[in-house]
Write a structure and sequence with these properties.
Bound molecules: adenosine-5'-triphosphate
Largest sheet: 8 strands, mixed
Shape: globular
Mean pLDDT: 90
Structural class: alpha+beta
Length: 642
């Protein structure tokens, strides 16, 4: 239950004098969150933390919030927290004077460098008491660290980490190291943090909640409403730098008016559900109006134009790709109508054969340089296929049904040869017509179709949601499980025979956002060319770690690869079907209490550079694939390695 009042606790009172939030206060909250799995309890601990911060120093709330979600800035600014394991080990050695061998041995047995750092500090004698850390100091140092490059960067980084570690007390070293690794994994999902933020803001302001005697039920309803408002605003404007000051300044009702979506701040894209048959589409949409579009096989590109004429291209993950696509940027003026002054478009950038006016397969696009692209050096041409318009001339279109958004799209832009096209569409709801359109899409080097609800309120654009109002139909997978999976590489086995100098097979995992764990799903050794294997070896060898991470869910009789990796690389993988397995742990507890799901006959398709490890296929999706497979009794035999 949320308590409406809060007082400054003893140790924070001292900091009140300095207007700084103690790092110890944050770490205490982390400890409490880590000790429970109850979402409500975690929310309440965060609310108490934020309330104390607001009392101490409202201007410190933003940094505190970033520390809770372990980020340094909005995603599109591209500053990353992750510091390599070897750096961290060196810093622990130099700040504690402990022997590196002992540190590595303890790490191998715990899988958690944070705990190793805390224990190492604990066993250290203390001659003098260093000054306590503040959230501001830690946050700023982490920010500085992420920007260090060039000469002597290794030494500079270790020195900075060292200086923080020396000041750590109690559990601070544990959480500091985990923050530096890039992930806390103590149940602080961003949605929970958003709820807590909203609640603490409401509770901190004088208003009905504080003055009148509202029932607990009414208070909880008011807090839930506030959380819904903040989450909805965040979906359209994923930028805490704008949201937090507005929340502090205005009432919860008024603040959305000061946080409108705008070009320059990318939205998390709407995602689709896979389907296994065309009849599934008809079942889903029944007598509703829907539309089919080609599903282009390229890279998702959210294109923005600001009223000042500046333009940007963002990836599926809100990464700024403007430097990667100077050719898109330079031709933008050709396809924007003169009356269009600002916009956000949802598009696919696709490799293009100019001579034959044809789409080229994704493999061609993937050969394009990803960094420092100069327009004059570009060998692979791209065109833009626009399928949605989210913002136009100062107005958000998110709430409009697709039918109206499409009209706006078509009136504000024009197709220009070899540069910009509207996604090809077909609005018949007849199954034979859909089948023909699907075949045409494949002839045109597309992956299949996107089928979208067309009219009514539900046909709005739902940022960051995998919505059932968008269905994807991939021709290749109609006979299989309906879709490929995107899985994280967490280990590898040395090759034999022709593959001796590279890794010959790999251990893959899916991600469970609830538990924040990577769960093993299969061993894969098929689908790789020799060149692929060499590329994977080179891409992965820098990410080898001493031991499996504490957040790798491996089961009681785990598959043991020769080397373990940090969870960084995501691969698209196809399989014949899924089966229950005692050795793999995907979706454990969802279809069986102790066994997981594994993939049968997995085959490598491609690297997914546009996806981070936490965007990989979730255990919930794996479970859905399992239940939806054509003949679910088929896969229930014993586990099969490839
Ligand atoms: P998901 O987005 O479901 O996680 P994914 O990133 O692996 O999956 P796909 O399964 O290939 O991608 O399907 C969705 C992607 O299809 C979109 O993210 C977008 O890049 C692409 N796409 C191509 N054509 C369209 C279209 N007409 N409408 C929407 N998306 C399209």
């Amino acid at each position: 239950m949320i308590s409406v009042t809060t007082t400054l606790t003893g140790f924070s009172f001292i900091y009140f004098l300095y207007s700084r939030i103690p790092y110890a206060m944050l770490c205490k909250t982390f400890e409490r969150c880590e000790a429970t799995t109850k979402r409500l309890a975690i929310t309440e601990y965060l609310v108490q933390l934020f309330l104390q911060a607001i009392k101490l120093t409202p201007s410190g709330l933003l940094e505190l919030l970033y520390m809770c979600i372990n980020k340094l800035c909005p995603d599109y600014e591209g500053l990353e927290m992750g510091v390599g394991e070897s750096f961290l080990i060196k810093a622990i050695v130099s700040s504690t004077g402990r022997n590196i061998k002992n540190i590595k041995a303890e790490y191998r047995s715990t899988g958690d460098l944070g705990t190793v750092a805390m224990n190492s500090k604990g066993s250290q004698g203390t001659l003098s008491m260093p000054k306590p850390l503040t959230v501001h100091q830690v946050f700023q140092t982490l920010k500085d660290l992420s920007q260090i490059t060039g000469n002597q960067s290794q030494k500079k980084k270790i020195d900075k980490i060292n200086s923080l570690l020396v000041q750590c007390r109690g559990s601070e070293a544990k959480y500091l190291i985990r923050q530096l690794e890039g992930k806390l994994r103590i149940g602080l999902a961003e949605q929970t943090v958003l709820s807590a933020l909203a609640q603490s803001i409401v509770l901190s302001k004088p208003g009905k909640l504080q003055t009148s005697k509202l029932s607990q039920e009414k208070i909880e309803q008011a807090l839930a409403d506030a959380a819904a408002i903040v989450k909805s605003v965040y979906n359209q404007l994923p930028c805490y730098d704008m949201i937090v000051p507005a929340l502090l300044e205005y009432s919860i009702k008024d603040f959305p008016d000061h946080c409108n979506m705008r070009p320059g701040i990318p939205l998390k894209p709407m995602l689709a559900h896979p389907t296994k048959s065309l009849t599934e589409i008809l079942d889903r949409f029944e007598d509703r109006k829907f539309t089919c579009e080609f599903k282009y096989d390229g890279e998702r590109a959210q294109i923005h134009l600001l009223p000042n004429g500046k333009s940007m291209v963002y990836s599926r993950n809100s990464e700024n790709m403007s430097d990667r696509y100077p050719d898109i940027m330079s031709k933008l003026a050709n396809w924007v109508m003169p009356t269009t002054s600002s916009f956000i478009l949802d598009c696919e950038a696709v490799a293009w054969d100019k001579e034959n006016k044809q789409i080229l397969p994704f493999q061609v696009l993937s050969t394009r340089k990803r960094k420092d692209v100069k327009e004059e050096d570009i060998k692979v041409q791209v065109v833009v296929f626009a399928f949605d318009c989210l913002y136009l001339n100062g107005e958000s279109l998110l709430r409009l049904p697709l039918e109206e958004r499409r009209e706006k799209l078509r009136s504000a832009f024009k197709e220009t040869e070899n540069e910009f096209y509207f996604a090809r569409q077909m609005d018949s709801n007849n199954i034979d017509d859909i089948q023909v359109f699907l075949d045409v899409s494949i002839e045109n080097n597309c992956e299949g179709l996107m089928v979208k609800l067309f009219d009514g309120e539900e046909a709005s654009y739902e940022p960051s949601k995998r919505s059932r109002n968008w269905l994807k139909v991939k021709k290749d997978y109609l006979s299989g499980i309906g879709d490929s999976m995107d899985l994280v590489v967490i280990g590898a086995f040395y090759g034999r025979g022709k593959r001796t100098s590279v890794y010959g097979a790999f251990l893959l995992a899916c991600y469970d956002p609830e538990t924040e764990e990577y769960q093993t799903i299969c061993k894969i050794g098929t689908g790789f060319s020799e060149e692929d294997l060499l590329n994977h070896y080179n891409a992965l060898k820098g990410h080898v770690i001493e031991a499996p991470k504490r957040f790798y869910c491996l089961g009681e009789n785990p598959v043991k690869p020769d080397v373990w990796f940090e969870p960084v690389k995501v691969w698209e993988v196809l399989c014949a079907d899924l089966s229950i397995s005692p050795r793999y742990m995907a979706a454990v507890g969802k279809v069986d209490a102790s066994k997981g799901i594994s993939l049968r006959f997995p085959r490598f398709i491609r690297v997914r550079d546009d996806k981070g490890p936490e965007d990989s296929t979730s255990s919930e999706q794996v479970m859905t694939f399992y239940y939806n497979q054509a003949n679910s009794s088929k896969g229930k035999g014993d586990d099969m390695d490839y």
